[in-house]
Design brief:
Order of helices and strands: EHEEHEHEHEHEEHEEEH
Structural class: alpha/beta
Radius of gyration: 21 Å
Strand content: 15-25%
């Protein structure tokens, strides 16, 4: 697949190299030609000097045949404008924009433009390490209604089948991380100490789901 990346900073260059290592073709756009030095000599993709919301620049980068577009420059406005041009003008279905302002990120999410809110993501990661208790949302759909969240379970849930966990919380257990490896729960899989449990639920139910799993299972669960 062909992927166009706007921004050749640390994130953009790393993303470009990773995608190329996976066998995809990549074009990187940056207004500063010196930024392309981050790609090194083994990068075989296109280096396009310009701004990511300029149509001619995007065409030069191959946006017309692109499967995906990532706007990861240091400017919120440039990122969101580039993502909109890629989607609305050239019909690229898979776009993402990095946004530093969490408030803006929420607005663009509701407009259907996937965003990565750098500040909020970093804050969530720090909180996860400082305060391991409490649910941590790892994904929210563009409407803000559905979330995938990591929800801690009270130690009394150890040994409970995940099918029973899901039924008790009226949630879907999306996946479990065990010893650093993600896995899909099987019908006979039980909760073990140290498991990180990710559930799918609605945003308005997340507090009650968190409260339920923070306590031991009820006798009728």
């Amino acid at each position: 697949m062909h992927v166009v990346i706007m921004g050749c900073g640390r994130v953009g260059s790393t993303l470009a190299m990773n995608l190329e290592d996976q066998g995809h073709t990549v074009a990187v756009i940056d207004r500063d030609p010196a930024a392309f030095r981050r790609l090194g000599t083994r990068f075989e993709g296109r280096r396009v000097q310009g701004v990511g919301f300029d149509r001619a620049t995007l065409v030069e980068a191959g946006v017309q045949e692109a499967y995906a577009f990532a706007a990861v420059s240091s400017g919120d406005n440039s990122n969101i404008l580039s993502a909109r041009v890629a989607r609305e003008t050239f019909g690229v279905q898979h776009v993402v924009a990095r946004i530093y302002d969490p408030g803006r990120a929420e607005i663009y999410q509701r407009l259907g433009i996937p965003t990565v809110a750098t500040v909020r993501w970093t804050a969530d990661q720090v909180l996860r390490r400082l305060l391991p208790q409490g649910a941590v949302s790892v994904h929210t759909d563009p409407s803000g209604n559905v979330v995938v969240a990591e929800v801690p379970l009270d130690t009394a849930w150890v040994g409970t089948p995940y099918a029973q966990v899901a039924a008790a919380g009226d949630v879907t257990v999306a996946y479990v991380t065990r010893l650093g490896a993600g896995m899909l729960p099987t019908p006979d899989m039980v909760h073990q100490e140290g498991d990180l449990v990710h559930v799918i639920t609605t945003a308005d139910r997340l507090p009650s789901v968190e409260q339920l799993f923070a306590a031991p299972p009820r006798e009728d669960d």
